[in-house]
Amino acid sequence: MAGLNVILLGPPGAGKGTQAERIRQEFGLVHVSTGDMLREAVAQGTELGARAKSFMDAGELVPDEVVTGIVAERLGQPDAAAGFLLDGFPRSLAQAEELDRQLEASGRRVTLAVAIAVPEAELLQRLTGRRLCRQCQKPYHTVFSPPKVENICDECGGEIYQRSDDSEATVQNRLEVYRKQTEPLIGYYRKLGVPTEIDGVGHPDEIYERIREILARAREQLDC
Ligand code: AP5
Ligand code: MG
Ligand code: ZN
To answer: Please, what's the b/e burial string for 61-75 (b: 16 or more CB within 10 A of its CB; e: otherwise)?
Structure first.
């Protein structure tokens, strides 16, 4: 049976990570977040981390060949054959084309792309107030969703921290990079007949319902 291969598109702060966790739990897809993988490499002090760090701190894209390499490796692992969820990748036309080539080589394709739309003023507010668990990556927000105990993750007891690229100046640049380099991908996937734009404003549970419906329908179509 073909797997459900989903791309989560959307600007920084749209809620990709927040929704990915819910999707992973219900649909059992392998969650591949290039941002999480790169941050992990930086934290571990690997060669990949050293190459990526300055781009990430500036809110710029890490070079395509660096990122497509780590994604190819992850999607080549056996568990990804049953279906995957890409969060934060592809982010440029070159990455999208390379992904299509890689998938085709293993008899797969993108099933659908979900683009989460959120107005820029709200993105700024979400990102500058965002906090994360250092251990399990669960996202929190100082105002919208603080942890029950200050600085401690509700789920795993891990320490809560702020991402170094969530300062206001870097967020502004990330939004600009998104507009220039990533937003055109919505048109790319529309041409392939797979994109679905959803309204990303509201409670995360409401937004998840919107995404859930689209994925459930796509899964039914795959099964028959
Ligand atoms: P990455 O980690 O992918 O960051 P991003 O795309 O900027 O997106 P974010 O993770 O900031 O936002 P999100 O959509 O996941 O939102 P979240 O759920 O956390 O990339 C970081 C960097 O790595 C890049 O700048 C680049 O340098 C590099 N990189 C990564 N991938 C790359 C690639 N493919 N190519 C090249 N370079 C790459 O939510 C945000 C906040 O809002 C949280 O506080 C959350 O609690 C809150 N929130 C979520 N939903 C709601 C809601 N409905 N209402 C209110 N608040 C909400
Ligand atoms: Mg994220
Ligand atoms: Zn945690």
So the answer is: bbebebbbebbbebb
